[in-house]
Amino acid sequence: MRLGLAANRLHHATEDAALFRWLRASQAGIRELGLELHAVGRTHDAIAAAGMLAGHAGLKRYPYGREGGLMKLVAEVVGMEGDARTLDGAIYLIDPVDPSSIFPEAVALKRQCVIHGKPFISTVSSARDWIENERILAGLAPDPGADRLHAFESQTLAMIAHDAMKPQMLAFASEHYDLLSRFARRVATGTTGQRLNEMAWSRGWPQDTPWVHRFLSGPMGGDAQIADLVLERRCQRAVFFEDPHVARQHEADIQLLERAVTTVTDEAVCITSPAVAARWVAAARRRASMRA
Description:
Low-confidence stretches: none
Shape: globular
Helix content: 40-55%
Distance between the termini: 29 Å
Number of domains: 2
Structural class: alpha/beta
CATH class of the largest domain: Alpha Beta
Mean pLDDT: 93
Number of strands: 10
Order of helices and strands: EHEHEHEHEHEHHEHEHEHEH
Strand content: 5-15%
CATH superfamily of the largest domain: Methylglyoxal synthase-like domain
Largest sheet: 5 strands, parallel
């Protein structure tokens, strides 16, 4: 398995920066999985200088960003000639106030991951969660250090879907209703929330109790309301089914929510496509059975 890897300067500038916090928590799992990390130049050099992943043959160096390193990751998420130049997703630890985080290649990296149903991982918690899920799906024992990420009974889950993706969100929630019902609270924007509540009521959820707390519709500010929950550390996981093929009138609100997630990089897990969400659920179910 191969992932592209990049981190904005803030996230590798100090000994306790986000990149190193993630590696300290996950480097054993990276080695167990034999994961290849195709790292853009400055990110690779920071890992090497910190003495992390020493001797791990899967750490590959790409050019600096200004020399096209991030552009190469985008092309390889899409897929180049042969399996050796095809990535299975990307980790991009984003500093939301770094201008490079909205450069075309940075935006394209996420977009192509979403289009191709591959993980786009933009926070420390998301990266930690992904490693643990892949470990579980590979048959490895649960890592107690990841237990907090699976403590759904104390967490709030945001469920957000753009118009073309609402049927997929409804199907996902219906298929995995039992697991999603473990969360202490579920939130959504207007129309998505109403449809999810109707599904839950049809499944026997009490008719006088919403399964999902509805905020305003996205164009009316619902994304901003959920962003505030994230910033207050009152929402720990977001399942965000994005349609990358259409322009959106409330693009700024959507970006606000995405920036909120990356602002609390150690707290929020974000899942960006139905394929990645299904893999998370499979791992969560298996992990729960292993811990029972």
